[in-house]
């Protein structure tokens, strides 16, 4: 069956509970993790706990059907599975006749899974009953299988919480006390990624030890069994053999595993390389520069002049290049960090990326204004933006016209020059396999 980890709001402890459960289960068998929404960083922690790629379940970026198929496909063969939700349980966006589209509750309904509700109890006692009662009754289609009480202060505090919940007959499946040992540092875009944490192994062991004694495993284990539902295998009717360089290191690590799987299924050989440490580009026919934190490692990127020169030369030679967000920033002429320091970047785009306090966040409908290695002019896709930088000057011939779900403001953004596609928009290719196929076809022709 398995469960979806939900909460009444953001910051209640979903990620801590999820990681503790994953770390403990992974000691005894294979466990597949999923994350609701477009997030990259939480899935990195899931993968670090399970040694398996975490899969994003996002019906805005893909579709409701794809969410169901992805879940069934990747649960297959795993002993346990777990889905971490996003924000509060019913926090979504109104689309069509679904008022909470893409919320944790929406995905729980799509997958027909119960919810394990995490509650931050540090400022609660008897009122917890009203909260749990409301979540249990708000949508009869969403079943609350139990609760996890997080940040419980004392035995007396737990006694008060338990007494309040007893009449509801909702089982308490976990109790976590306040514990600074399991705190994960964060910064301007959320948690610090796993590649930058020196104490990751220690954190995993601590979470596993915590889970061993803080959860009711007799009730939880049957709930967490991975469903073995029938699913269609993913096959590609046309293949485009090409070597594609994947920029992956501490500065660039925002990739949806499904995107990389699609490239491989279409015939690509994926070659990982590091813009931080490589002196030159690998022997490839195309490049995929994902998002990440070039602003944090700007000094190291600027110091690697030989690599920057090679990358600029590859773009001048019309090698197909696909760059998202952090990759886009790296291709700019300069990057101005949060301290106002200016760093030289690749220089393939006549723009400067400047870090700022304002967070640009949300789903975007992107309409292609011209052909690129992935898009045909006029095609539409849904993507996601998540950054604290701005680019200037604006492109003379923008790649996309974008619009948010609720906003009427149209934004022109993105760069397209010859075989280069560079944009702030993160794309999930799950339902758009023609996009990576076009990219690989360009790579194959360039190599020939």
Automatic annotation (TrEMBL):
EC number: 6.3.5.11
PANTHER family, per the entry: COBYRINATE A,C-DIAMIDE SYNTHASE
Class of enzymatic activity (EC top level): ligase
Required cofactor names: Mg(2+)
Molecular function per GO: ATP binding; cobyrinic acid a,c-diamide synthase activity
Site feature (Increases nucleophilicity of active site Cys) residues: 426
GO biological process: cobalamin biosynthetic process
Other facts: The a and c carboxylates of cobyrinate are activated for nucleophilic attack via formation of a phosphorylated intermediate by ATP. CbiA catalyzes first the amidation of the c-carboxylate, and then that of the a-carboxylate.
Family from the record: Belongs to the CobB/CbiA family.
InterPro entries assigned to the protein according to its UniProt record, in alphabetical order: CbiA/CobB_synth, Class_I_gatase-like, CobQ/CobB/MinD/ParA_Nub-bd_dom, GATase_3, P-loop_NTPase
Name under which the protein is recorded: Cobyrinate a,c-diamide synthase
Domain named CobQ/CobB/MinD/ParA nucleotide binding: residues: 5-188
Reaction catalyzed: cob(II)yrinate + 2 L-glutamine + 2 ATP + 2 H2O = cob(II)yrinate a,c diamide + 2 L-glutamate + 2 ADP + 2 phosphate + 2 H(+)
Pathway linked to the protein: Cofactor biosynthesis; adenosylcobalamin biosynthesis; cob(II)yrinate a,c-diamide from sirohydrochlorin (anaerobic route): step 10/10
CobB/CobQ-like glutamine amidotransferase domain location: 243-432
Domains (record comment): Comprises of two domains. The C-terminal domain contains the binding site for glutamine and catalyzes the hydrolysis of this substrate to glutamate and ammonia. The N-terminal domain is anticipated to bind ATP and cobyrinate and catalyzes the ultimate synthesis of the diamide product. The ammonia produced via the glutaminase domain is probably translocated to the adjacent domain via a molecular tunnel, where it reacts with an activated intermediate.
Domain of life: Bacteria
Its biological purpose: Catalyzes the ATP-dependent amidation of the two carboxylate groups at positions a and c of cobyrinate, using either L-glutamine or ammonia as the nitrogen source.
UniProtKB keywords: ATP-binding, Cobalamin biosynthesis, Glutamine amidotransferase, Ligase, Magnesium, Nucleotide-binding
Organism of this sequence: Rubidibacter lacunae KORDI 51-2
């Amino acid at each position: 069956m398995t469960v979806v980890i939900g909460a009444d709001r953001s910051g209640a402890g979903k990620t801590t509970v999820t990681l503790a459960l994953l770390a403990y289960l992974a000691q005894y068998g294979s466990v597949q993790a999923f994350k609701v929404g477009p997030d990259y960083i939480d899935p990195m922690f899931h993968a670090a706990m399970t040694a398996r790629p975490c899969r994003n379940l996002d019906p805005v970026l893909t579709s409701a059907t794809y969410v169901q198929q992805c879940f069934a496909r990747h649960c297959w063969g795993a002993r346990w599975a777990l889905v971490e939700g996003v924000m509060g349980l019913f926090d979504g966006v109104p689309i069509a006749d679904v008022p909470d589209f893409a919320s944790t509750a929406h995905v729980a309904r799509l997958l027909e899974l119960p919810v394990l509700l995490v509650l931050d109890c540090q400022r609660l006692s008897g009122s917890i009953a009203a909260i749990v009662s409301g979540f249990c009754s708000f949508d009869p289609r969403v079943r609350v299988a139990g609760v996890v009480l997080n940040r419980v202060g004392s035995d007396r505090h737990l006694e008060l919480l338990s007494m309040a919940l007893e009449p509801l007959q909702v089982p308490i499946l976990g109790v976590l006390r306040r514990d600074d040992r399991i705190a994960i540092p964060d910064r301007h875009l959320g948690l610090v990624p796993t590649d930058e944490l020196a104490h990751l192994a220690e954190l995993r062991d601590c979470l596993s030890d915590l889970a061993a004694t803080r959860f009711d495993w007799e009730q939880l284990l049957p709930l967490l069994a991975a469903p073995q539902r029938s699913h269609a295998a993913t096959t590609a009717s046309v293949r485009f053999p090409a070597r594609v360089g994947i920029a992956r290191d501490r500065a660039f690590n925002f990739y949806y595993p499904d995107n990389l799987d699609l490239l491989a299924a279409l015939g690509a050989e994926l070659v990982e390389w590091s813009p931080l440490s490589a002196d030159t580009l690998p022997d490839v026919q195309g490049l995929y520069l994902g998002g990440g934190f070039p602003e944090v490692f700007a000094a190291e990127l600027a110091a690697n002049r030989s690599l920057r020169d090679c990358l600029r030369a590859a773009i001048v030679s019309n090698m197909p290049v696909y760059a998202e967000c952090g990759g886009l920033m790296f291709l700019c002429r300069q990057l101005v960090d949060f301290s106002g320091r200016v760093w030289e970047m690749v220089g393939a785009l006549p723009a400067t990326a400047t870090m700022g306090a304002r967070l640009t966040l949300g789903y975007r409908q992107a309409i292609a204004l011209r052909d690129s290695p992935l898009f045909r002019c006029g095609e539409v896709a849904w993507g996601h933006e998540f950054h604290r930088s701005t680019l200037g000057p604006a492109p003379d011939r923008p790649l996309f016209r974008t619009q948010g779900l609720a906003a009427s403001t149209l934004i022109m953004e993105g760069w397209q020059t010859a075989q280069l596609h560079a944009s702030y928009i993160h794309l999930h290719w799950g339902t758009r396999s023609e996009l990576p196929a076009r990219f690989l076809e360009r790579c194959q022709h360039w190599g020939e």
